[in-house]
Every structure is written in C-alpha cells, then in structure tokens.
UniProtKB/TrEMBL annotation, chain A:
<dbReference type="Pfam" id="PF08145">
    <property type="entry name" value="BOP1NT"/>
</dbReference>
<keyword id="KW-0677">Repeat</keyword>
<dbReference type="GO" id="GO:0005654">
    <property type="term" value="C:nucleoplasm"/>
</dbReference>
<dbReference type="Pfam" id="PF00400">
    <property type="entry name" value="WD40"/>
</dbReference>
<feature type="compositionally biased region" description="Low complexity">
    <location>
        <begin position="124"/>
        <end position="139"/>
    </location>
</feature>
<feature type="compositionally biased region" description="Basic residues">
    <location>
        <begin position="1"/>
        <end position="11"/>
    </location>
</feature>
<dbReference type="InterPro" id="IPR015943">
    <property type="entry name" value="WD40/YVTN_repeat-like_dom_sf"/>
</dbReference>
<dbReference type="GO" id="GO:0043021">
    <property type="term" value="F:ribonucleoprotein complex binding"/>
</dbReference>
<dbReference type="GO" id="GO:0000463">
    <property type="term" value="P:maturation of LSU-rRNA from tricistronic rRNA transcript (SSU-rRNA, 5.8S rRNA, LSU-rRNA)"/>
</dbReference>
UniProtKB/TrEMBL annotation, chain B:
<dbReference type="GO" id="GO:0070545">
    <property type="term" value="C:PeBoW complex"/>
</dbReference>
<dbReference type="GO" id="GO:0003723">
    <property type="term" value="F:RNA binding"/>
</dbReference>
<dbReference type="InterPro" id="IPR036420">
    <property type="entry name" value="BRCT_dom_sf"/>
</dbReference>
<keyword id="KW-0597">Phosphoprotein</keyword>
<dbReference type="GO" id="GO:0000463">
    <property type="term" value="P:maturation of LSU-rRNA from tricistronic rRNA transcript (SSU-rRNA, 5.8S rRNA, LSU-rRNA)"/>
</dbReference>
<feature type="compositionally biased region" description="Basic and acidic residues">
    <location>
        <begin position="599"/>
        <end position="618"/>
    </location>
</feature>
<comment type="similarity">
    <text>Belongs to the pescadillo family.</text>
</comment>
<dbReference type="GO" id="GO:0030687">
    <property type="term" value="C:preribosome, large subunit precursor"/>
</dbReference>
<feature type="domain" description="BRCT">
    <location>
        <begin position="321"/>
        <end position="414"/>
    </location>
</feature>
Amino acid sequence: MTKKIHLKRKGKEAEPTNEVATSSEASENEEEEDLLQAVKDPGEDSTDDEGIDQEYHSDSSEELEFESDEEGNYLGRKQSSSAEDDDDEEQSSDEEEDESADSEEKDEVSASTSKKIQPEEKPSSSTSSGATKKGAATKELPKRESQSKPEYQDSDTSDEEDIRNTVGNIPMHWYDEYKHIGYDWDAKKIVKPPQGDQIDEFLRKIEDPDFWRTVKDPLTGQDVRLTDEDIALIKRIVSGRIPNKDHEEYEPWIEWFTSEVEKMPIKNVPDHKRSFLPSVSEKKRVSRMVHALKMGWMKTTEEVQREKQAKRGPKFYMLWETDTAREHMRRIHDPVSAPKRDLPGHAESYNPPPEYLFDAKETKEWLKLKDEPHKRKLHFMPQKFKSLREVPAYSRYLRERFLRCLDLYLCPRAKRVKLNIDAEYLIPKLPSPLWEIATGRCIRTIETDEVVRCVAWCPNPKLSIIAVATGNRLLLVNPKVGDKVLVKKTDDLLAEAPSQDVIESERIKTAVQWSNAEADEQEKGVRVVITHFKPIRQVTWHGRGDYLATVMPEGANRSALIHQLSKRRSQIPFSKSKGLIQFVLFHPVKPCFFVATQHNIRIYDLVKQELVKKLLTNSKWISGMSIHPKGDNLLVSTYDKKMLWFDLDLSTKPYQTMRLHRNAVRSVAFHLRYPLFASGSDDQAVIVSHGMVYNDLLQNPLIVPLKKLQTHEKRDEFGVLDVNWHPVQPWVFSTGADCTIRLYT
Amino acid sequence: MRRPKKYEAGEATQYISRRAALRKLQLSLNDFRRLCILKGVYPREPKHRRRAQKGSSEIKVLYHTKDIRFLLHESIVWTLRDYKIFAKKSNRDRAIKDFRNLKRRLALFPEIKLDHIVKERYPTFIDALKDLDDCLTLLFLFSTFPSLHLIPREQSNLCRRLTIEFLHYVIASKSLRKVFISIKGYYFQAEIKGQKVTWIVPHYYPFKPQSRQEVDFKVMSIFVEFYTIMLGFTNFRLFHGLNLAYPPQFPSSVLQDSEESLKDEASFVSDRIAALNFELLRTDKVQEDEEELDIDMELLEQDGDSKRIIKMKQEAQEVSRLRTLFKGLKFFINREVPREPLVILIRSFGGKVSWDSSVFAGSAYDESDETITHQIVDRPSLATQYISRDYVQPQWLFDCVNQRQLLPTNKYFLGEKLPPHLSPFVDSKRDTYIPPEEKALLDPSLIETHAQSDDDSEDEAEKEEEETVDQELLDAQLQLAYQQETAEYKKYGGPDGVNEDEEDPEEDDEEDDDDDEEEEEEVDEKTKRLQQEKQKMSVQSGKVHKVNKRQVHKAEVDEHRLQARMVKPRHRNLFRKLIREKQTKEKEEWLLRKKRRTIEAGEKEARKTAKREARKEAAAAAAKASKLGK
C-alpha cells in the first residue's frame, strides 16, 4: 500500500520539487529524491497531532494521501504516522532502503525543514524572475523591504529566519492558540513576536509617525512598514490603473496582418478543386431532409415547438354523448353527494338593511367567541359599504374555499334522513270529529259537613244516585239533575228500607249501620246514610248499580266492605289484609275485584275467590284507579304525580306513564261512554283527557290531554280529592278540599 | 363449521381505517390524499362507530372497504408510483450532473390522465352540472392567482381560460337567473338544463399570502387539477349544445384586419374572448330560435290549467321576460366599476355594453356615443355629463335582475344613497324575519305606502305639533262657550233634565262607588256632565276583552303544554330541540324587528330635527329680510 503511495507521490510532486530544486540556495545540491526522502523520513517529526493523524490514516489512507500531495505540508506527518503503524513499519523501512539506494546523500532533514524550504525559495525565485506569484501581495512585501531598506532589518531584533514563514501557505488562524509559528532549521519553535495589547497599539499609534503605513504580516506575525513604492502600487491598484507604472498602455500599434491584398500569394499552393464545387454529400443530406420534410417525417423546430405546446394542455372532447344516459362502469360504492353550501342571506350583502348590522353588544359577543367560531350566530361580521367601489376583497375567502375543499375530501359522509317536521307534529292529534267540552261551568254545589273523600255515580241508568263519602258516613245522594221522572223514581226507591231477612254477623254489624237521611239533609238530596266504624276513604259501584264497595284504610282486615243497595246489607270479602288498602274497584263485565294496596294492584276473581293477577306499578303510593268500561284498560293514579295506564292484556307493567300534574294525583276516572278520562290532583286542577281504546287489538290506545279545569281552591296543600263522570253526559264531578263538589259540563 | 369471531363479519368488515387503507394500497399519505381527491373517495360515517372500529371508541377516519378496493384497480395509482420513480431518477441525474439524461427524462414526465375519472365520477352530464358549484367557485378564485410555489402559472391560466369559456356559454345561453353582491364576492346563479348552478366570483384581489396551517395550497391545487378537466369537458358539451365552436372563436366579421390583429393574432383573439363582448362563431347558420320556448308554452296550455301548470307557465313567462330585460339598452361602464361581472350581467340579458378602450381590450363604442342609455358610475360626482343618458350606480343592474324588471333609476342616481341590496336567495315564504324592503317587493302595493308612510307620518307628526297649540286654544274657547251655554240652560231649565238624572246612576253603579257619594253631594250639573263625559271616555269595553284574550291565550298555552307532555319518550328530546329552535328563531326575529324600529325612529328624529332647524333658519332669514325691508 505504501508503495503505491510513493509512486503516486513521485509522479505528482515532480514539478514543484523541480522548481524548488532549481531555484533554492540552501538546498541546491539536493536532488528530487533527497527532498522526497527528507519528506518521508519518519524518525524526526512527531507532532502533537499524531494521534489524530493516525486515526485519519486508518480510516481512509488513500484520500489523505491525495490531499497531502497537493499541499505538501501534510507529507511529513502522513509519513510519520504511516511509519508508526506497526504493521507497515517493516515495509516502509524496506522502501526507505530502496529509495536511499538511489540517492547518495542522506541528510537528516526533518519534515519541518522541508516545509521551510518552500517559503524560503519563493522570495528568491521571485526576485530572480521578477514576476508576481500567487499570493504575491503579502509575500512580496517583506522581501522588497528587505532589499530596499536596510534599516528595516536593523530595527528588527530577530535574525532573518524569524521573519520568514516556515509553515507554508496555510490558514494562519490554525496557529492562533499557540505561542509560536512553525519551526526553524533546528526544529525549534519560532516564537511569535510580542503582541501588545490595545494600549500598546494606541501608544504606538501616537508615537510612531509611520503607524499608518505599518501592516501586520499574517504569515509571520511581524509588523511591516510599507515603503513608498508599495504605497504607490496600492494607490494604483485602488484607483483601477495598471499596477506596473512602467507599462505603456498607448504604445503604437504594430499591424502584423494587413487588410491590403498582396499581389502574390503568401503560400504558393493552389486551392483544391473541391473547394470550388458544391459538396455532394451535403447536397445528398439536404435533399434527404427536404424529402423527409415533404413526407412529413421530419418537422421544423417551429413545428415541433408548436406541437409540444399543443400537447401540453389537456384535450377535451365529447365525453358524454347525451345528457342523461349513463354508461355502465365501475363506480364508487353507494355514492353520497356532498351537500351544497348555504346560499347567502340578506346579512351577507355589501349593503344590507340596517337591522342586520351588528350593534355594539353583538359585535362584542361576536369577537368574544374568537376561539369557538362555531358558536357564533353568523360566521362573518355584516358590513355596510356606501358603494361597490369601496368593497375590499374578503379576507377569509381563501380560507373558506380551503375549508370547503377539506370538507369535500375529509369529512365523513353518511346518508341521513333529515327530519323536517314541525314540533306540533309530535304531539298526538285528536281524531275528528271532536265533541264539545267547551264550557267549564259549575252548575250546582252541594255543601257537606265533613271533608268529602269520595263521590261515585250509580252506574244503573234507571237510578239517579251519587254515593258520597264524608267522614264516617256514606251518603247516597239524589243530585236532582236530568230526567224528573227518574229523580222521582229514585227518591221512591230509596224512601223505604227493605225488610232484613238475613241475620248479619257481629263483625259486620259493628262495622256498618244503614239509615235514612234526616230532613235537612233530605233537602240537599241525601237519601240514605250508611255509617261506618272508621272514616271512609273511598266508595265504588258495581257495574249493575246494586253493589257498592267502600274502603276504610284504618279498618285493618275489615278495610274493604261491599254493600248491597237493594237489600241494604253489607259483606266483608277479605279476612286477612294484604297491606294498606287504598282503593277497590269492580270489573265492569267480569266478576273481578281490583284491590289497590300501597304499591301493587291485585285482581281477584269473585266467583272462584282467588288471585288472578298482580300489577306492578313501580310507584311509591297509589291513590286511586279507574277501569275502562270495556275492562281491558286500567288507569292508576299515584301520589308521586304520575298516572299509569295499564293494558291488562299486554303486561303487568304500565303501558304508558303520564306526568300531567304538578302535584300528587288524587284520583282518576274513565267516562263510561265517551273515550274520556279525568284526573284530579293536589295542584287544584282537573285534567280531562282523551283516551281512545280501539277495538282493533293491534292499535295502541291514543291518549291526548284536552282541558285543564282549575277552579278548586287550595286548602292545606290539598286540592282536588276525587273526580268522576256522569254516566252519559260528558259532565265531570269533582270534590275538593274546599268542601265543595263541582260539576263541570 | 367454525364459529366466526367477533368483528369478522358485519359492520366491522365494511369499514377500513385510513392506516389500513394506506397499507393496502402501498401509498404514502400524500399520494393517498391525491388519489382520494381525484377519485372523489371520502370517509364514511358508520352507523355504529364502535362496532365499525372493532371495539375502539376513539374517532378514526374510516373508509368503505369497497371504495378502497375500488381504488386498488385505478390506473393513476401507477402514475403516482411513476412520479416517485421519476423523482428519484431525475434527482440522481441532477446529482451526478448528467444533464443530457435529465433533459431526456424531463421530456418523458409521466402525465396523469383524468378523463376516465370524470366519466366515472359523473355518469351523466347532469351529474356533472350538479357538482359544478364548487368547481366554478374554486376555478374563479384560482384564475386570479399569481404564479406560486405550488400553483404553476399554467394552471391559473387554464383556470382563467375555462372560466371565461363558461361565462361565454352563460351569456350565449342567457341562463343567468340571480345575482348578488356579497361582502365575499359576486354570487351568480344560472339555470343550466334545469340545474341551478351557483358560483362566487371574489372581489378583486383575493390572493393573500397564507400560513401553511391556515391554507394548504397543495390540496387546493389537486382539486383544481381535477376541476379543470371536468369544467373543460363540461364546457365542450355545453358549447356544442348551443352550436358554438368549442375552443371559442370569432366569426371573421369581428376579426377585421387591423394593425393590432395582424401583429399577434393569438393574443388579439384571446383578449377579445376575455372581453366577453362579442358573439362567438357558430357552427350552424340559424340564429336565435326562441320558438322552442313558445312551443313549450303551448304544450303547457294544452295540458290544462292545474295550479302547478299555471305556476310553471308564469315562471316560464317571467324567465322569457328576464332574458330580454336589457334588450335595446346601451350601457357604458365607467373605469372605476368592476367590468367583468357587469358585462356578464348586461350581455346575458340582451344589453349592449362598452367601456373605455384603455381599461380593457374589446370596447365597442366610446363614452361620447349619444345613443348610450345608461352609464354605470360608482363615484360621487362626474365632471361631464350627457343629458341623454342615466347615470346609475352598479347596484341598479343587480336589483333589476333580481326583481326581473327595470326599476326606476332615481334611487340609484349618481351619488345617491343606495337602498339596501337584498339577497335573492332567501325564501320569500319563510317564517323568519322579513325586512320591510323585501315585504315591499313581495307586495307591490306596499311599495308606495311604505315609502310614503314615512313622509306622511312625519308630516302628520309635524302638523300635530304645530297644531297642538292652536288646538288647545280652540278647545279652551269651546269649553268656555259650552259652559256658558249650560249655565244658561240651567237657569231656564228643561224637560230633559230629569231623564238625564235617571241615566246617571246606572252608569255610575257600573263604574265606581265614589260617584254615588259624589252624586249625593249636590254638585253643579255642569261638572257632573263633564264627569260623565270623562267617564264615558274612560270606560273601555276593550279592557274586558283584553282580559279575556289573555285568559284564552293562557288556556291555549296550558292545553298545548299539556298535550306536549304526551310526546312519546323517544321523541321527547327531538321535540324539545325543535321547540328550542323555534324559540331562538322567534327571538332573532323579534330582535331584528326591534333593531329596525329603533333605527327608523332614530332616523325620523334626526330628519325632524334637521327640518326644524332648516325651518327656523328660514324663518330667521325671513325675519331679517323683513327687518331690512322696514
């Protein structure tokens, strides 16, 4: 490997070394080989950079060699490093011997000396040639000085060698950190001349009259005083004139080649014949071209250019043959076209009506929502311009277009059914024709002594009786409305008590006592009074109108009682109580008995005397219930503001839960004939609702609240206690905590 | 049989995340984006996101698996890969300075072909027209762009060319329907083959340097790349539909051999084309057949007169009127007015237009032409004016088009304060706020009343003010006379006095108990009468009525609220939302109305004070004059 290197170096360095050899004074006798040898010599030079160089070497030796060849400075170092390589040592030493065989002399010339040679030579060579070399300006100066001005040498304390640059043409800042610049012949460091600080410089500036012409030589670090000649030269260069003042710019022109035609030829050879004849080959070539052009095989550059131009743009043709025909083609799956952008409204106009412009408050709000622009009422601020001329470009236009582009390719799309309905549509509608419950007027008020707990119409159409529960007493009242014959008949029927042929048990006797009403009560309409042993909570009629059941919550196992009107006697159906009974009800058609306890409703079969079903209300406290005349639907009111609609065929859970009232619902009632039901609540309101049950089993019941009647007064948090319907007419009775029964027609 | 695992079937297999799609297509994200834009593939919103994302609930970009499989077979995917190869090779050439090879390679740049994609994305021509909105808006924007890093000049030049061609079609087919000057730009709506195509031409000059995160020109440039091809094909078909030569050309009559035209014919022609002011070369000889439309009308007449047909007929008549709105009018556009939008407007409704020849090439006549009927001006005053023409502001044209009739020009005169410019795109039958100007448009009878009412009411108010003093005087005199009369009457007595006494208590009972006391006291008959009269004045039957109304309203609201309670639970949220929307809408309407009222009141006040002051000044001047006269 090293051999190769040597060979290379030999070839390459031939020239410079030659020059050096010819012109040098110090090493005149040295030959090329010597120099190389010297350069190669490994023993001497061991610079600080060795380690680094070694690394270099091991990495990529060849490249480094290349560099070293050119600059020359690296040589020594490179060689030394290569020599120090353990593997190469022997080889290199061998080569040394080979080389040394060629050269006689074998001086101990260090690498540093070889370096020193160059600069030393240069001045001398330049003096001899008189021509400026590369980098001359700086290098020449000291030389000239030394020649022309001996006093300069005197002033310089150090010997001549010191002045010289021994490091060669390298960037001098490499030596910035060292105290020396290069080495002298004896391999001693050349110490940099003392560099004064700023004060020194300042003092020199004042003291030295030649300060202005003193320059620092970067190569040696010496101060150099410029001579007058130098200054003249610099001036000439600066003013753009030819540096050499001896050069004559305008010397007379010597015409070497004249325009005059001589009579005799300069050369006496006659021209060849073919120089007078047109070229055949060219003619052939031209004719071939012409033919090619004619045939269109070849094109002129202009045509080519034009074609290229035409080729570059897109070509358009009739892509769709008709407007609507679609060619079968594989397309995107289930395409969803992007919705179009909203069209602008009045607010976007450049000259909108004044009300669309923002006032101060709106502007403030608009600006405040800078971070959440989607919350803004408008995505832009309406502006008004006096004329079209004043309208500037919209600053966010580009951004808007960009966002639209993003929408088009990045926004997930899906087909959605957009609901374009009015809110009213969601409210259940009444089937027409709708009968009239237009007026809510009170016809008659019957005063009672105690708090009215419950009222119930006799379902028998031949009787005009209301059962009214007040306190311990159950009053059978003739309301004296409707047919007078009927009223009379009822009075007659209730006037006389039937004979009692069945002996009652003690349990019943202690619970109930039947009696006719007294005279003053008779006037009000009360006919029969059934006195119970505990306050009656509720009274209900059987569908035929002969039986009625009462509830006394405090009655323990006797809390539910069934009375027979025709025979004026009573029974107690349950021997054991299953909870606090709230409400009882007869089924209108079947022999069933509904009993509502606090949480649940139980349905008993009266004939079989067994439990049929248990309805789960999921409410805290049931207050009342009512059954639809067809018997399949049950309405339950609870104290937790709800009304529950049970479809008995469907399930034991409510079909619909209604929250119409604002307070505890006290009672509910179905109308016998019309699809109506009413509910009374502690918010003093009676709500009449439409509750249609269809014969078609598939159709679900329709429930629509109709009217809110709010005439009752509030008393101790209680409002309406009970409601009921007239069997035929859409008249509602309601009893309230204000001790009144009200009749709405 | 193996039981399928979770997410091996159903919705999870229908969707594919973007990462998976990239992996499947073997493309980089940039290439994938480009492909998606060109092919019109977009992410999908799954019915059930959790299920579609195989259980993960974060929101990912999901594509339909079938779409991605569809992309797999696309030929431009290979072109995209070729791009990559091309870039690598040419970069290598450049690096090793092999310029000969580089030049050869540059000539072989893989061109992307989009024709088949246009056909594929728009199976019918009508589909393409439906999607023309975004295309036109973007191209009109790009046609104004300077040469940018990601937008070569060629692209913006092509955009300009194509948009101009499209405008030529709009003018030739007279399909423009609605126009609107917004703060964002000019909105144009044309009806092409039954499709409403709306586009925006931005105000000059829309380009502003944008930061990368604000606007990514690369994305837009890809869109434009596709849209140019699409609009080119669309233009081709549209031009052929009108029997126009497609790359638009002029008949030889327009191209007279002038010095200018001979110098550089290509640029001369392209300038004239951009001017939009000349008829284009037709491929057939027949000119203007309006019979087609008439035939349609006749057909409609035969069909009978159901409401819909009558409506259609009206519409057709209106459109035919609109198409000849500016026929016979000659316009001149002043240099400060934006030329292009107005030229489109005027020419597509049959008017003739010109401008100063130094503004743009292709002007037809000079400003000094005496036959010009209207000059469009947008400056406060003008030095030289011709009596023969109307000087109107540009908004006049826009308003005329939107109302489909020539409006009186007096409101739009030079330097006049313009009436509000209303959007033609809002539905006139909507239930939100309608500004009074629009109301006036809908009901022509309101126009005058609205305009006059202001002045009238103002005058009345002024008169009232003037007369109040006189009135008071007169009243006082009358009162005096009346008192005298009654006093006389009392003195001499009369048969009717008793009757009057009888009447009084009835009325008093109704009204107040205080009156009874007063009656007991002996008061002069005169004062009693006065009081009576006062009471008569004060008793208002309306008061009772009002209470009723409120009650009725309250009952209605109550009932409505009750019924609203019965909304099915699954609709309850929707119902609430709808109600809320309705309420906000109402609130907005109310707000606008209120604002308008206050503005108008303020204006009126200002005008009144101005007038009063003017009058005062006049009076003062008159007084001075009279003094001087004395």
